[in-house]
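Components:
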Amino acid sequence: MRLLKLVPDDTNIAFLKWRNVAMAIGVSMIIASLALTFVRGLNMGVDFVGGQSTRVEFSKPVDITDVRNKADAIGIGEATVQEFGSANEVLIRTPVPKGGDDSANAAADKLRAGILKAYPDAKVGSVDTVSGKVSGELLQTGALSLALAMLAISIYIWFRFEWQFGAGALFALFHDVSLTFGFFALTQLEFNLNIVAALLTIIGYSLNDTIVVFDRIRENLKKYRKMDMTALLDLSVNETLARTVMTSLTMIIALVALLIWGPAVIFGFTAAMLLGLFVGTYSSVYMAAPWLIWLHVKSDSFVPVDGGIGTAERVADDGARV
Amino acid sequence: MLEFPRWKVIGITLLLIFGILLAVPSMLPDKVVTAFPSWMPSERINLGLDLAGGSHIMLEADINDVRKQRLDSMEKTIRTVLRGERGKSENIAIGGLSRANGKLSFMVRDATKVDEARERLNNQTKGAGLSGERDWDIEVRDSTRIIMTPTEAGTRNFIDNAMEAARDIVDRRVNALGTREPTIVRQGDDRIVVQVPGLSDPQALKDLLGQTARLEFKMVELNANPQDLAKGIAPVGSEIVPYPGNPTGEPVIAVKRQVLISGDQLVDAQQQFDQQDNQPVVSIRFDAQGSNIFARTTQQNVGKPFAMLLDGKVLSAPNINEPILGGQAQISGNFTVESANALAISLRSGSLPVKLKVVEERTVKPELGQDSIDKGALAAIIATMAVLIFMIVTYGRFGVYADAALIINILLILGIMALFNATLTLPGIAGFVLTIGAAVDANVLINERIREEVKRGRRPIDAVQVGYKEASRAIFDANITNVIAAALMFWFGTGPIKGFAVVLTIGIVTSVFTAVTVSRMFVAGWLRSARPSKLVI
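Structure:
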């Protein structure tokens, strides 16, 4: 039986030759993404700005503008209406009313009643009402957890490898997360609690790739102590290329299935993970690895020892001991 | 590395069988599971509200209400304590008791008694928190004015005590609605989360929980003149309260401050119909002590009107036509059957010690949840099939082993979730599908490494051995980062996201086990029996 080989044997691509160009592109993408996020803003869901989001199902396709006018007429603030999942379903979002938390709840009830009156055949599928205070807290913990995840993972890598590896990983993570923010600012897909969960997952999985490459670099550093750093990185990336492509593919297969056949509610969530996976794959090569050259990782950071997982690999490290 | 002693093989096999058996009930319909013999596991995976449908409501203590309550009760305390008790302590005359900026302040008329007043009030304050702080600060200004400031620690203390009681009352009220399996838990310092599966219109529930249900009977102040009333000035000892249904058309009414009797002394409340006009009313019954007080006051005030107040608003103000001796009374006030019934439930369950407001509501209709399950299951099946085929096409025999490990992995995740009664949520389904894609990562790492070693000219057994050993290190490191991310997700997330984090974590642990240990057992078994001279990978 002939087996499928997506990546030919013994590739010898000079990935790191393009590190300066790649890094320039990477940094520009980060800046562009952040600028887009700040200028255009994210389409924040009720989880983070408060207000209410009501999913309504009609028996036949409806005119979005018509629904918006009817929702506005209820008089609880300007409604955003968008199609959701199918032409028969819409998502109506209204802001937190001025009167504070009590009126938020009253407004939710008004909207429900108002819509059902205007469209007697409509069915309210789901309602999310979040007060201003709660949404503020969710936003705060969400941001905090993202920052903590990036930091905690980088510190772990510093422990397991060297500080230069940790720095490289942190930068790659920052790149991945920034680009995901940029993607949400660009597409104006709703940014909600689920997306933060997706971002955390991206942080975890995009690091998978980075670690596999780093692990190979560490191994080669011990093996070829005189090799030029750039050549060594290229060798490591080439050696792990087949695996990188394979793993990303299996995950992409799974996520595409979810994107196409999965429930509409988690479309944004899946899209975010898919993007993060894609970005995370190349960022391990171009956003994380170059730092090892620039930050002067030396081969004597890892004195060769005989086998064993996690045994004392770092004996002579220059000031990076923790 | 490839030696698998028999006890290890048996151990792993038993573990797998156990795990897979646990997964079975979750994949079968209700009827089949209830018919299981008793030795079969019947624990199933819980469905989160976003999948099962239902209502999630978060209630928060109204801090303004707490502050007002504390001022109210301290004002009362000041008056009683400084009035003194006959024969025990003397009366300290005070004046100008007022509230401003959330503080209470008053004058002690006799400057020599300031210290005595301060001492008596100090005895009324309580310690709050661990820092030795009191619940009120007492300050003397200009040698005669006493200012009492409620401390934050005192407010927190109050909320803490109040929320514990509030949780029980909320519990009673929700259960009185007859919903199935509600969960009511405290969250943080000042919140209560109520989850009711299957409830798709939580309006009645919210109305019920939004009512503090503080019932008070007070005499109507008859000496108030309408001009003063309109200006908001009440005679001494009285207060002006809203009266939405006032027959005179005036939206307010003046009542005596003194409470005749309150809802605390109720033993029962039922929705009924008035015998004269057939309107819905709530009929209440007082306990023995309450009945006595009620009988005495009604005797003394025949012919005068009294007001029935609910949460500070007057429901109605009927005349006392005759003394009410049996301890029974009827509350009227433009009720519908539903609102009368809700009030009866609220009164029976007791008044909430603090006003609660709804700060978050998430409701999903059960049909929508079922739709999510169906679509999620379809996506999961397609994803699994695609990954299975892809692995075989790429790695041949080794792909089959990886696939076997993947299928076992999926069953183990379901089994462990059922064992711990974990909750599957919509993002959890996504996490599940993602795990399917990610779980083979370990096998990809191992197989690619074996390919490399074969290429370097190692003999099959050596290649497999080195492949597993070298790949394990990266697999371990890579999965730790995922666990870190999942742990933070669990920490920050609300219900559905916690569910996602749980699935992710279980998936990480089981996938490392199946992809590394279980697949190695398969490969080792094959190598031993077939002794291949060449590896096709």
